[in-house]
Amino acid sequence: MEKTTEIIRGNGDGVTYEFPVLRIAGSAPDAPKAYIQAALHSDELPGVVAIDALMPKLRKAETEGRVRGSLTIVPRANPVGRAQQFFGAAQGRYHLGSRTNFNRDFPLINRPDAGLLPGDDKPLNADDRLKARLLKLSLGHEIVLDLHCDDEGLPYLYIQSDLWPAMADCAASMGVEAVVLWSGESGASFDEAALCPYLKLPAAEAQLARRVVTTVEYRGILDVEQHFAEADAEGIYRLLVARGVIEDKAVETPTEFKGEVVPIDHIDMMPAPAAGAILYDVKPGDRVKAGQRLATIVAAPGEEGGRVEVLAPQDGFILTRRATRATRAGDDLVKLAGVARSADARSGALEQ
């Protein structure tokens, strides 16, 4: 294994950021290559500990000569966000200087050519330099995993619809409970930018059936537990075996995905009708019926009529819910995966 350090120049004199990159060389030039990163939203740690649990398995495979395809691994992909600490709390979702989500506005290029990406000589904000660098690191890899987590939720994947159902074996191997299929634009998120260079290539060159590009949502932000990390590492390892990056005859790789597959336009985000405290009636994984109460907002404590109920607009199941129990009016409370198209259907990105 080789470790290198990437340096990102900051916005001011004397300010730099750095993050490590781990590489394992493969023995078979024709084997697919894999790129795995975690904590693009720097305070999301389930993917970080999953990579930590994965690395001993990969080092063992390397020692035993079973690594066929090269791997590039970035355990903590966002040193810029990690430096944003205010009053003891991490601010890892948005770059405070540009007010932009760290997982939006990646460069979209129409072929896998690193020369099309902006270099360090360009007058960019640090977050934009970081995005260009991460995308450059991912180019040339058939498998690209971007490990995230939700507030509180089931483990699930976002998959661009052009890659489904060819990626069903990957969802099965990773042990997730749901897949959300999206199409169109996704705010130039990392997964959109990683797949974009191949979508306009001739089919024989793009080889979409060979590609695995996905945002992985590992449950909730507080689910940083050893047993989850081990299970998620096993899932990634099975995927790598299933797709021929790692050789391991002792590993069973399922091909049939038995979880839920939901088009993104079936997701109801359920905005809060009032500000207040949230009392949930449901948790991730629960099945619900149209009209069922999902939550109560205590908007005016102790007052007559001070509670406001939130009802399910359709049948479905709860994919995620908010981790905090205070809400403003209009804040999204849950992702309800419905049986039909949402009245507030969104095509690419569910959240900003």
Automatic annotation (TrEMBL):
InterPro entries reported for this sequence: AstE_AspA_cat, N-alpha-Ac-DABA_deacetylase
Transmembrane segments: none
Keywords: Hydrolase, Metal-binding, Zinc
Lineage: Bacteria, Pseudomonadati, Pseudomonadota, Alphaproteobacteria, Hyphomicrobiales
Pfam families xref list: AstE_AspA_cat
Example GO molecular function: hydrolase activity, acting on ester bonds
SUPFAM superfamilies (UniProt xref): Zn-dependent exopeptidases
Protein name according to UniProt: Succinylglutamate desuccinylase/Aspartoacylase catalytic domain-containing protein
Record-linked Gene3D superfamilies: 2.40.50.100, Zn peptidases
The Succinylglutamate desuccinylase/Aspartoacylase catalytic domain, residue ranges: 31-240
Cofactor(s) listed in the protein's UniProt record: Zn(2+)
